[in-house]
Amino acid sequence: MKYLPWIGLLLLLAGCGKQSAAPAPERVTSITTAQVQQRDLPVTESAVGAETAIGSALGYDPTRVAGASHIRLSFPQHVAAQLRIGQPVMLSNFATPNQKVRGEIREIRPALDSTTLSREVIVAVSANRDWHPEGSVRGEVVLGVRKSALVVPEQAVVLRPAGSVIYVVTDTTVEERPVKTGVVRDGDIEIVSGAKLNELVAVDGAALLSAGAKIKVREPRA
Length: 222
Prior knowledge:
The protein is mostly beta strands.
């Protein structure tokens, strides 16, 4: 028992020599940003189809003179009801999606497919040396335009358990903002509510953020 005070003193001296652990470095997420912009967004619908059977058969005729092609597209009933004869349709082959040609609606067939609840729409395409239907064809029609819509890049909108959010940049941190989204077009998405024009939002790296997160902004997006 008489050695206990000495043991306590040695333990105390040993403890004084230990250094406290350094605090973990604060996490900083590197992001790119973009401004909330305003532009007109076309409201579109698309359908998949192919050249009509007669057109396909004529395509094998070596004596056939190049002429108009006719594409059969199946649009849902609620979309077909909004179409009209003569309305333009942008067509593209699945194999070459970036090569598009303009056609016009020639016929909207009244028969309704009871299985798919769709109607056939026949689109005529004038003779074109650079484009002809190959396999499956995609057709897109414009039903309207959203005037002066607020838009951000699609990557700026992050899906969380509570819904879609964006991260608005405030100096060196971000504010998490719930949003309601609308039309998606050419890599942009419409923000119906939850954003203001010219606000700066996180884009690349947004999915790694949370409310109040520290950020370091890389070169902003154009």
